[in-house]
């Protein structure tokens, strides 16, 4: 991937930078995610995350900071990786249906 700033899709900060800039602690949101508090998700996404815990699928939480920045916390199906990201940073697989 090129590091040339002209080739970047956006100058938006990443999720952790947004958390730091707004003086929010990322650990607080990780604790919420681990405690099955999916944050600001629609009812169908809440249901999917609850099923995902049982079925070992990927888990999505969505939170909104005080400055109205929205970010996601996603845990992979194998539970090895949890990622904080802005919705603009997410690149779903080609066969993944994305409503936004």
Please report the number of helical segments: 3
Distance between the termini: 25 Å
- Radius of gyration over all CA atoms, rounded: 14 Å
What is the string of helix and strand elements?
HHHEEE
Largest sheet: 3 strands, antiparallel
Short description:
The protein is 29% helix and 16% strand. The chain has 100 residues and is α+β, with helices and mostly antiparallel strands. The longest helix has 13 residues, at 43-55.
Account of the 3D structure:
The model is unreliable at 1-12 (pLDDT under 50). The chain is globular and about 35 Å long. It is built from 3 helices and 3 strands; from the N terminus they run H-H-H-E-E-E. The chain has a 3-stranded antiparallel beta sheet with strand order 1-2-3. Strand 2 (70-75) and strand 3 form a beta hairpin. By secondary structure, it is an alpha+beta fold.
Topology:
Layout: H1 15-21, H2 26-34, H3 43-55, E1 59-64, E2 70-75, E3 82-85
Key phrases:
three-stranded antiparallel sheet, 3 strands, alpha+beta
């Amino acid at each position: 991937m090129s590091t040339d700033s002209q080739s970047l899709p956006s100058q938006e900060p990443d999720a952790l930078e947004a958390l730091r800039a707004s003086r929010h602690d990322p650990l607080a949101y990780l604790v919420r995610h681990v405690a099955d508090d999916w944050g600001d998700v629609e009812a169908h996404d809440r249901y999917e995350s609850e099923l995902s815990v049982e079925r070992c699928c990927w888990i999505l939480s969505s939170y909104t900071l005080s400055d109205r920045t929205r970010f996601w916390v996603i845990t992979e199906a194998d539970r090895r990786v949890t990622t904080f990201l802005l919705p603009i940073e997410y690149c779903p697989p080609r066969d993944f249906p994305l409503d936004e």
